[in-house]
């Protein structure tokens, strides 16, 4: 009994010292912040390049298995990927800057429409219980703050794009060499991993890849297709800011269930500043895109690779939204998948021991 008390006391002491160390670490951030910025500038290109390599490698392997030499497969996929991205930046950035500038100039008019919507919802829910009413008000306020903050961030990001030219220029070279030396990198990671952790680590990473890899690649492809179709449809019907709205619709589409609603709100607000006919057109476009994604693109490209119950996914989305807003909802499902695999492996390791 005494040994158990000493063990618990030691555990609590270690936890308290750990929290104290973390607290002091963040208090003296002015000392390590320059080092952190330097390490960040070095590691960010590697993480981005590693993620792109992870996305492209299976495609290259599939092309190689059809009989195309591996070197040629790398070159084909590499130039297609970065060629499309480069062309998109070349043609899209000037148009995006023009639309963002126009949006910022006309923002008071859009804000007025948005305020009228909020007042209408507020009046319709005035007789509801205070808790529900306050929750709706909080959600609307958070949405408004997110819209304003997102526009500011995008504008500042484009203005500061010149500062990241070197970073963007390094990534294609890193991706090329990572794809070219993929097996050597795997072998290096194998030797750097402690011997007793090698087999569990390989099984853990393989299970994560099996659970998440196809989902991420498929979902990104679906989002790209949906965003492109949304942009072309809005542009064809002369809806204002089609590129911005297409980007929003495509990006938020990565969020299951709630993504289409979040992506539709800005498009409907913009349409409301134009005409009733435009609102109907935008609603038809949004519903058509969701039918296309839910019945054709989703099952065909993404499939049911997650093997998670919809209730679990919705709870993950709610938790992600509470913690990190829209960005938290975007990463909630992959995080839950990784945690699920991690828990399964920890339980297996505990049973084995």
Automatic annotation (TrEMBL):
TM segment ranges: 12-32, 38-60, 72-90, 161-179, 220-237, 243-272, 279-303, 323-347
Species the sequence originates in: Metabacillus niabensis
Similarity-based family: Belongs to the autoinducer-2 exporter (AI-2E) (TC 2.A.86) family.
Protein name: PurR-regulated permease PerM
Keywords annotated in UniProt: Membrane, Transmembrane, Transmembrane helix
Subcellular location as annotated: Membrane
A Pfam family recorded for this sequence: AI-2E_transport
Topological relation to the membrane, as annotated: Multi-pass membrane protein
């Amino acid at each position: 009994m005494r040994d158990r008390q000493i063990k618990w006391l030691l555990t609590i002491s270690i936890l308290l010292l750990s929290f104290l160390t973390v607290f002091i670490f963040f208090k003296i951030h002015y000392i390590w912040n320059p080092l952190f910025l330097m390490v960040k500038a070095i590691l960010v290109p590697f993480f981005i390049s590693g993620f792109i390599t992870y996305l492209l490698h299976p495609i290259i392997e599939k092309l190689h298995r059809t009989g195309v030499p591996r070197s040629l497969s790398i070159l084909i996929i590499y130039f297609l990927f970065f060629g499309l991205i480069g062309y998109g930046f070349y043609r899209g950035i000037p148009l995006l800057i023009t639309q963002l500038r126009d949006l910022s100039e006309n923002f008071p008019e859009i804000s007025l429409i948005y305020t009228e919507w909020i007042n209408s919802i507020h009046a319709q829910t005035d007789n509801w219980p205070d808790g529900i009413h306050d929750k709706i008000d909080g959600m609307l306020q958070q949405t408004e703050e997110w819209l304003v903050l997102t526009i500011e961030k995008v504008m500042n990001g484009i203005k500061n794009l010149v500062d990241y030219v070197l970073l963007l220029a390094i990534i294609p070279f890193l991706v090329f060499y990572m794809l070219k030396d993929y097996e050597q990198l795997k072998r290096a990671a194998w030797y750097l991993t402690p011997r007793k952790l090698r087999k569990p680590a390989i099984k853990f990473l393989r299970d994560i890849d099996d659970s998440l890899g196809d989902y991420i690649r498929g979902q990104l492809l679906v989002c790209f297709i949906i965003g492109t179709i949304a942009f072309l449809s809005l542009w064809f019907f002369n809806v204002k800011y089609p590129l911005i709205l297409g980007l929003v619709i495509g990006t938020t589409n990565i969020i299951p269930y709630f993504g289409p609603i979040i992506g539709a709100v800005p498009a409907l607000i913009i349409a409301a500043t134009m005409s009733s006919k435009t609102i109907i057109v935008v609603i038809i476009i949004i519903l058509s895109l969701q039918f296309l994604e839910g019945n054709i693109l989703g099952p065909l490209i993404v499939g049911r690779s997650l093997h998670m119950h919809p209730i679990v996914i919705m709870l993950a989305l709610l938790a992600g939204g509470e913690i990190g807003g829209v960005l938290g909802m975007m990463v909630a499902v992959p995080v839950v998948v990784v945690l699920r695999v991690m828990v399964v492996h920890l339980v297996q390791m505990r049973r084995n021991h």
